Amino acid sequence: MENSLAIKIQNILDKNEVEEDLLFQLKKLIYENELQSGSIRDSKAIYELYAENLRRALGPVENNNIIKSGFTDLDKAIGGFLPGEFVVIGGRPGMGVTQLQVNMALNISKTVPVQYFTFDFSSTQLTNRYMVTLTGIEIYKIRHHDLTGEEQQKLASLESEMASRKIFINDSCSNSITALKKHCLQQIQDYGVKVIFVDFIQKMSSNRYRNNRELEVSYISRELKNLAKDNDVCVIASSQLSRGVETRYVGSKKPQLSDLRDSGAIEQDADKVIFLYRPAYYGIHEDEDGNSTDNMANLIIAKNRSGILDEVWIKSNRNFTSFIDFDGFKNDFNFTTNRLNEIEKPPF
After folding, report:
1. How far apart are CA 7 and CA 142, in angstroms?
2. What pLDDT score was predicted for residue 108?
3. CA dist 128 → 29, 71, 158, 193, 329 (Å)
4. pLDDT digits (tens, 9 = 90+) for 107-124
5. Do residues 261 and 213 lie in contact, with contact meaning Cβ atoms separated by under 8 Å?
């Protein structure tokens, strides 16, 4: 098909016609080619769609297709992830976006198969991330073989745990969206993959728009959205944010939709956009109520087509090897009736 199109284009160019006629014929050819290559399902009458939706709304709760992130407050806020959704997780370097995706992949893989594409790490390096997340051992200890006997035993005991996780890792797509889609279709068919992680969008490329980065990223974003929708899977992709976050005045470092880097199409295509923000990274060690923000991370739900916008807290463990649920700020003041008597009685 591509060779046939190339021949037709060359035939038009060989006619040596004036520029306006050439452009008109080329546009017409491209339009006709899109009509031939495109596919469209039959339209459905509104009453048929209504009947289907009514059956779902009034029937028993269907939880089988809801994909839980494993973070309780986040799942309550967004209702979980859904097949067909394109979810974007954004954050500046150093926030821990890859670590968050690793955590989510581990949580989700308990119930459904997961495909994880990494463009920044080798498959070996990423597997180390999974190992430290499950054990809490600092990653530098694994890299430098600086492990105690207890830590060696802890790593060795992960064998059955790893065998139970339905996670497939790929670091060889050469950043190509075409190669990624092809591999995903195979994984969906062979292993029933339901969730696809892409780390991260700006590392990907396409031959179609190599000379225009904004159009290239827009195309990649649209292809990831189509991959999710056409195959009834959830695609969760991380995205870099612009440096505009860093230039804001102190106290206003929270990311927003306009910070998504390279293309506004990412914001438009995404069904959900979640930003990861760690106040302590910017030297903000207390929130407005005086609670410590050390080891805390804020998940900002900036876009949600199927629910509310909200902010929830999670926290990292001491070694920053994993994110876990946050059970609320604790008030260290202990109220007792004896203290109340002291307050009521004068000191003389």
Report:
1. 56
2. 95
3. 50, 22, 12, 22, 31
4. 999 999 999 999 888 888
5. no
